[in-house]
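During the reporting period the student researcher (J.K.) took over the structure-prediction task from the postdoctoral fellow and processed the backlog of single-chain submissions. One of the processed entries is reproduced below for the supervisory committee.
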Amino acid sequence: MYKSIIRPIFFAFDPEKIHHFTFSFIKILSKLPFASSVIKGMYQINDPRLEREVFGLKFKNPVGLAAGFDKEAKLYNELGNFGFGFIEIGTITPKGQIGNPKKRLFRLKEDQGIINRMGFNNKGLESAIENLKKRNTDLIIGGNIGKNTLTKPEDYTADYEACFKALHPYVDYFVVNVSCPNVGSHAKLQDKGYLLELLGGLKELNNKETIQKPIVLKIAPDLNNQQLDEIVEVVEETNIDGVIASNTSVNREGLKATKEQLEAIGNGGLSGKPITERSTRVIKYLADKSNRSFPIIGVGGIHSAQDAIDKIKAGATLVQVYTGFIYEGPKLIKDINKEILKSL
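J.K. obtained the following structure tokens:
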């Protein structure tokens, strides 16, 4: 029903407006008597064989929702009904910011992709914490953190540390987002020397806490092999807990969208089917190079159960969906979990 009826209606409207409408709709729907139970019955698979222990955390199943969907931690309780094993909120920045000028979210329907240049739009730390205080789910919740757009390069680390300290009591693991193509000084954020400094600082803060929270690094799918080698070295040298591969891409090769369409859209990060193989290759390279010495969360172009299985076979311990969730609907999570069970 989603793909035949609901999606065509949604896709007739502006992507960002329909995103906000969907949030309101799910909020209202979930307040109706028995609605949450019905949704759980339709989409959840509760099977102990799906459970995964990763980073010292116990996940109900290995299928998560990637950051960017619930940016401000407004809907994670309700989204948990759809069968996810974990949900990642954010990207959260210390101060609230409106992000880049609209229009900034575009569908590539023929390619089953999305281009966005949202620019870390969110209401900031205080708002996210207030929303996280309303947590009534036992799902694992990850916190994706970044810097404010106007922050000076010498203060980047301070932004990440502020987010880390403030969110520490409220999330189960942290994602250090240095790979979004829609923020300034993108190159510095992926420099090995700076990553060692940033992650080292966060590890020091973590060690001061009574309970340490896992820290993972989110990387781009466009890194070359030398850069991926450096990522493996960074993980080993800082002893962080893992990597998310991968974020959105700036590469436009192989798209069905015309040159004119792409020029009209402009810059931004590409997600969805066009980066399926690219992100899987990155996962396999990291897993092979590191001899699977750290967990990898695989994300990028998962539109089917087979896409998720391919990423797991390549070396991913957990997977996340985002654009596939929009194109395929909530049944995708159930399909992936069913296929994982079949493969056991």
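The committee noted the following: The radius of gyration is 19 Å.
J.K. will present the remaining backlog at the next meeting.
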